[in-house]
Amino acid sequence: MTDLYVSLAVLGAAVLLSEAVRRTAAARLFPGVYWIYLLEAASTFQLCSCTHELKLLGETAQLGPSVGLTLTYVVTVIHLTTFRGATCNPSGALESVCRGTSGVGAAAVLVACQFAAAVAAQFFAAAVWSLGLSDVHVRHQRFGFRCFDPLGGTLLEAAAVELGCAFAVQAAAMHVHRLDQKVRAHFIAAVITAVVYAGESISGAIFNPVLAFSVQFPCSGHTYLEYCFVYWLGPVLGVASCILLFEKLIPFLSGKSTIGPDVPAVHKQKKKTR
User: Fold this and answer.
1) What are the phi and psi torsion angles at 219 (to 5°)?
2) CA neighbours within 13 Å on the CB side: how many for 37?
3) Rounded Cα gap, residues 207 and 196, in angstroms
């Protein structure tokens, strides 16, 4: 249990550090474009840092699926309630460009901030593990912080799982505005926990290109391009297919030209909850 308590402390430290950056930025930069970039960077750092620790704990501590899924759910709720509208996902920036709510240049800077934060999270995780605060950290340090093949299936199977996970989470985000405000974060967290349970053994159920870049890409077993195929192309296609289905195909088949007034509301709510 000591390993679990140490990992919980690391998770808390990552969240508190990120929240301190967000609050400082809000006090000095809000409103403004720099506030948005710093918000994305801080929140992406939090997401990646926590996932690094949870992944290590799940792979080495043998806590059991119930504890792992409970941690996934609780940490996801914390993320959703502290991100303050940050997407922490390049797919969100790409979607905003396609919808015309953001320019290509602004989206590119946003994605760059996300990837920079993902790299920073790698250094943060390595620095914490180097302290040897738990047996899990000591063993991981002994192996040079190496991680091994994260795929439990073929490349096509893993890409299909990432596509399906991204589709499910995107669909939940697009329709969560119909629920009461108090349960929205819990609903999205429940969906994410469910897809993690369903797809973790095959691809790790990352469904986020920048998170995969931080957590999965350093692992051995496959080439960089193969990881791009699974963890970048899969989620992007999942998000795109979900939007096309619910905003184009279904309205077309039902005789409606578009979703209309719901689109901005959905997009705004998705930003708040992803």
Assistant:
1) -75, 150
2) 15
3) 9
Q: By the 8 A CB rule, do 130 and 204 touch?
A: no
Q: Do the beta carbons of residue 14 and residue 124 sit within 8 Å?
A: yes
Residues in the chain: 274
Query: Tokens 């320019």 sit at which residue?
Result: 103
Of 240, 235, 215, 244, the residue nearest 44 (C-alpha): 215
pTM for this entry: 0.89
Is 3 in contact with 46 (CB distance < 8 Å)? no
Backbone angles phi, psi at 89, to 5 degrees: -150, 120
CB atoms within 10 A of CB 208: 30
Nearest-angstrom CA–CA distance, 163 and 206: 10
What does the block give as tokens for 135?
Answer: 């047996």
How big, in percent rounded to 5, are the helix, strand and coil portions of the chain?
80, 0, 20
Tokens representing 157?
Answer: 């199977």
Lowest mean pLDDT among 49-53, 110-114, 165-169, 258-262: 258-262
Between 66 and 164, whose confidence is greater? 164
Kindly report the number of other CB atoms within 10 A of residue 121's CB atom.
26
**What are the tens digits of pLDDT across the range 178-188?**
999 999 999 99
